[in-house]
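Recall that a protein's primary structure is simply its ordered list of amino acids. Everything else, from secondary elements to tertiary packing, is in principle encoded there. The following example makes that idea concrete.
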Amino acid sequence: MIRQTKDLQDLAIGATDGTIGDVKDFYFDDEAWVIRYLVVDAGSWLSSRKVLISPIAAGKPDWDAKLLPVTLTREQVKNSPEIDTDMPITRQHETEYLDYYSYPYYWGGMGLWGRGGSPNMLLPGYDGYGSATAARAEADNAQARTEARQRDQDPHLRSCNAVDGYHIEASDGEIGYVKGLLVDEESWAIRYLVVSTSNWWLGHDVLVAPQWIKRVSWEDQTVVVDLNREALQQAPIYDASNSLTREMEIAVFQHHGRKGYWADEARQPKKGALDRTDA
């Protein structure tokens, strides 16, 4: 299901032995547009330290209890590498963090999460995670470690909170601003930017998929999209009070004459498929 980031920020993080803290922000990968970490305020029990929690550890949210369970203990979180969340997070920081929790590197492989399409597919015990897959994952990890040493230290992680308010520039001029982000709670992919067009007419909110972004000027806080003003003006209206259905998504993509992201994902290997097809 697709959720607003502000809904996810209402959740408390529950370890296996107690509450860790509350979600305050998210770091997303600005190349793949996937949330890689939750920024959690651990509160007084950890001297108000902010910690990173990877979606790899996350279970299914309990929306009634406003709780996101994670497969971690408070002691694990307490002893995790201290990372200043107010400063840029380098690839070295990430490798230290992922190594501490014995997580595979998400940047090894062709999927959103390494060899898989969701973070849970990286964990042992998941359907299809057998010895052959584990061996391939280890090979991917070794390659990813090499790439991490060779590439720029900037891991392209950005704050979701910081993107709110960014200007949206169409092919023929400015059209509005970013009002929020919509996230797939299974893959943690950012599926849409919610764009308010109220600056230009008796406006409404519309959706823009990351695939339609030509470039982002982080310095100028501007997102340039491969759409014109008229296309956005006539696009289906997004109402945040209603759940986003696949039918609504199809209407948005058809309006812009684009192929839905789900068509590509349908061709990706599923749970256990890796062992069956190339073992």
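Residues 126-136, 269-279 have pLDDT under 50 and may be disordered. Residues 162-264 form a domain with the Photosynthetic Reaction Center; Chain H, domain 2 fold (CATH 3.90.50.10).
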